[in-house]
Amino acid sequence: MIGSLISRVFCQRQLRIIPLLFAVVLVPASVVQSAEIEGVRFPEQLQMGEAQLQLRGTGLLRYRTVFKAYVAALYLGEGAQTDDVLGEVPRRLEIEYFWSIPADRFAEATIEGISRNVDAETLEGLQTSIAEFNTFYEDIEPGDRYSLTYLPGRGTELGKNGRPMGVVAGADFSSALFAIWLGPNSLSDGLRRELLAN
Predict the structure, then answer these.
(1) Own/partner long-range contacts of 51-54 (Cβ < 8 Å, ≥24 apart)
(2) To the nearest 10°, the Cα dihedral for 158, 98, 186, 128?
(3) Which strands form 155-160's sheet, in the order they lie side by side?
(4) 8 A C-beta contact, residue 122 and residue 176
């Protein structure tokens, strides 16, 4: 009888301890390291499908050197080198905005940015992809975040605040799109250097 009582007490204590053990085990797993710039946080790692992406750099884009336009973070697949940033590697660019911007301005900026980084023949061949991608844009309010994610074999996805907006296939389109920020004629040399800093 005493043995069964001790057994019951032991079991009850074990049952109380088990949730605590799980709490101890789960808490560290839920704590994700992050980088902060201008009060905006970006996680150090992202899991996109089967690809694990590592944060490579963050940067601030200023408008007319005074006004803060947005902050951005670049992620690359494990083992990818910054020299291959426009190649066939998993990558993601997250941009959080400080100003309201209408959807049609994003479409215009996409065309302008790609035009600066590709020749006329390449631009002509990308017209259908650009037009499709430009239909995904929505108006942006301060604090909204766009993400551009390229996964080889899948294409480039535009996301807004964690919500998928659409995907356009093609490595050539993805390279041209990411070149807006990371190409030889990027939007800002300073931002490009910061994103490729690591």
Answers:
(1) 51/77, 51/90, 51/151, 52/77, 52/78, 53/77, 53/78, 53/90, 53/91, 53/92, 54/78
(2) 30
(3) 45-48, 51-63, 67-77, 91-97, 145-151, 155-160, 163-168
(4) yes
pLDDT digit string, tens, across residues 83-135: 899 999 999 999 999 999 999 999 999 999 999 999 999 999 999 999 999 99
Are 58 and 42 in the same domain? Answer: yes
Please give the torsion angle defined by the CA atoms of residues 175, 110, 35 and 50, in that order, rounded to the nearest 10 degrees.
Answer: -40
Whose structure tokens read 């190409």? 183
Based on the fold, state whether residues 4 and 101 are members of the same structural domain. no
CA 107, CA 149: separation in Å to the nearest integer? 17
pLDDT tens, 136-169? Answer: 999 999 999 999 999 999 999 999 999 999 999 9
CATH number for position 137: 3.50.70.10
Residues 14 and 56 in one domain: no
The domain tally of the chain equals: 2
- Going along the chain, which residue ranges are E strands? 34-37, 40-43, 45-48, 51-63, 67-77, 91-97, 145-151, 155-160, 163-168
Domain that holds residue 13: 1-31
Residues 14 and 80 in one domain: no
Q: Are residues 10 and 108 in the same domain?
A: no
Q: Are residues 122 and 139 in the same domain?
A: yes
Cβ proximity of 110 and 176 under 8 Å: no
